[in-house]
Amino acid sequence: MATGIVSIAADAHRYWRLGIALGILALVGFAGLAVGFAIGVVIHRAQTAILARDPDVALRMFSFVAACTVLGVRWDDHPAAVWVLGGLALGAWFLLTPIAAFDVTSRKSTDLRDYAHGAWLLPSVATAGLAITAANVAQEVWAWDLVVIATVAWIVAMVVYLAVAWLIGWRALASSFGPEQVTPDSWILMGALGITTLAGDHILAAARALNPPAGIAHWTASVTLGTWAMASLWIPVLLHSHLRRIKQRAGSLRYQHAWWAAVFPLGMFSAASAATALELHLRALQTVSLVFFWIAFTIWMLVTTGWLHTVRWHRATSCRGSRGVPGRAGAR
Predict the structure, then answer these.
(1) What is the pTM of this model?
(2) Residues 307, 255: contact at Cβ < 8 Å?
(3) Domain regions of the chain by residue span
(4) Does residue 255 sit in helix, strand or coil?
(5) HSE of 118, CA atoms in CB hemisphere, 13 A
(6) What CATH code would you report for 2-310?
(7) Using CA atoms, how far apart are residues 331 and 312, in angstroms rounded to an integer?
């Protein structure tokens, strides 16, 4: 998701070679993760069934849906890729939605409040991604009814966002707010609104082309601008919170897998700003998009470097361990 959206942002600013390179990396990474996950499910079926009963696991699984839709946008000039990725996303969404709904409704509201965090917004991100896919396909097959479906999915994504954001806000008010509550995936609070904005841009483009009923083309623009403004307001809040965490907790900037969750929202804000600038004819947002593209790409580079360093360290440690055991045995 992170690499794919930075690729889309690069393409929006005509850094085509960089965009293609990142897009290929995203596609290869997606395939590797998908195959690895499928093998894990087959080998550990019983354990997977138990884990799926945890709302945190079920809600995080929507990252697969979101990744499919992001890659579908990146490779939208290849119809076969759009249809395959869109089909995978839709199938996974229909599979995961009842599981997640059952897990969430079977828990007390206070339990949900105590564990709610940014990654729980992934269903909203995934649903907004499906709205983008539906809007794009609508223009390809010239079907205005798909624009209506995209709009419904868009509204559902916003409702889910409000529900999860309410839980997170309730948690912040119910307990003393500390730096441990601010994690890299907190940036999804902004990123989810970013992809909601991007969905609005795609729906607006499709509505203008196909003129669906319900006046979708008239009110979509104002809602899209509103979600962009709300995403913008999150940025200083999240930045201030992370600076406090860095100041109060040593080692906060060390690499951890969760930092990928911060790359995606920044790249998404850049892509959404570029699309909004185009659809709403707001030139200033092109500059905003360019600035955030370079911020997102810089952080992508830092996180990638940290990941590669961690992988190399683990391999070196593993090799030293495997060589050390025979050596000690021979000395004896």
Answers:
(1) 0.89
(2) yes
(3) 2-310
(4) coil
(5) 22
(6) 1.50.10.150
(7) 28
